[in-house]
Amino acid sequence: MLGDAYHNKDFIFSKMERQFGYPIVIKTVQNRMARLLRISGLNQELTPHSLRHTHTSLLAEAGVSLEQIMDRLGHTDDQITKNVYLHVTQEMKKEASHKFAQLMRSLR
């Protein structure tokens, strides 16, 4: 809508007045999130970065490929993505166990 007046660098939280598209100061995002968590009665220890971890875990649980997750996170090194974000979720453990059981049944 703003065309060239919008500084489009794919920031998650960006200004929508004056410096359109430029990043909002992280402290502002943290303060707003803390207030919303307090108002809603949710876990006040959550941070914007914890949402990144949750999002990544959900992508992995949904079967999204490592390459797609890396692209979404802006990573070029798969070790960072694997070590920091892709811890095995409980649902993924169940699925692995289920797949292994299916394999064993098929070998009969």
Overview of this structure, please?
This protein is an all-alpha fold and 108 residues long. The protein folds into two domains: 1-46, no CATH class; 47-108, no CATH class. It contains five helices and no strands. It has helices at residues 26-40, 48-61, 66-73, 78-85, 90-106. The radius of gyration is 19 Å and the shape is elongated. It starts with 25 loop residues before the first helix and ends with a helix. 4% of the residues are buried. The model has no long low-confidence stretch (mean pLDDT 87).
Shape type: elongated
Q: Count the helices. How many?
A: 5
Helix/strand class = mainly alpha
Alpha-carbon Rg, integer = 19 Å
Instruction: Tell me the fraction of residues in β-strands, as a range.
Output: under 5%
Q: How helix-rich are the residues, as a percent range?
A: 55-70%
Provide the succession of SSEs: HHHHH
User: How much is the average pLDDT?
Assistant: 87
What's this, in brief?
The protein has 108 residues and is mainly alpha-helical. The protein has helices at 26-40, 48-61, 66-73, 78-85, 90-106.
Which secondary structure elements does this structure contain, and how are they paired or packed?
Layout: H1 26-40, H2 48-61, H3 66-73, H4 78-85, H5 90-106
Index terms:
108 residues, mainly alpha, 2 domains, 5 helices, elongated
